[in-house]
Design goal:
mainly alpha, 4 helices
């Protein structure tokens, strides 16, 4: 690729997009309009991370939360918790909200279900 190496900020955004897309695909919700929500979130966070480059390692968790919030308005809760089998479906939360190595966590059972980007691996178990 020659001089086309991604700078660390673009790399972080690229990774965040890939991780969130992987989770959407795993949940079977990666329709075109949902993909555009991811693009919107990445665009929004590009500005954020340009202002605060030290936040690059937090971007995956933030994009995941942005997409989750956008989906809630249009579709309902996502991703639903695969760890709890009770009647009341509930969504997983991203923790830490602002930190590296974000995970999808069930706050009811207090368990980390999967790293962001790895929901498909849980579903396949």
């Amino acid at each position: 690729m020659g001089g086309m190496e991604l700078n660390p900020l673009e790399q972080a955004l690229h990774t965040a997009r890939a991780l969130v897309m992987a989770d959407l695909v795993a949940g079977g919700v990666a329709e075109a309009d949902v993909v555009s929500l991811v693009e919107d979130a990445v665009t929004h966070r590009r500005w954020w991370v340009e202002q605060w480059p030290e936040g690059a390692e937090f971007v995956a968790g933030l994009v995941a939360q942005d997409v989750q919030d956008a989906l809630l308005e249009k579709y309902g809760r996502w991703p639903l918790c695969p760890a709890c089998a009770e009647d009341e479906p509930h969504a997983l939360d991203v923790e830490p909200e602002l930190g590296p190595d974000p995970h999808w966590v069930c706050t009811k059972a207090a368990v980390a279900v999967a790293p962001v980007g790895a929901l498909g691996e849980v579903a396949r178990r």
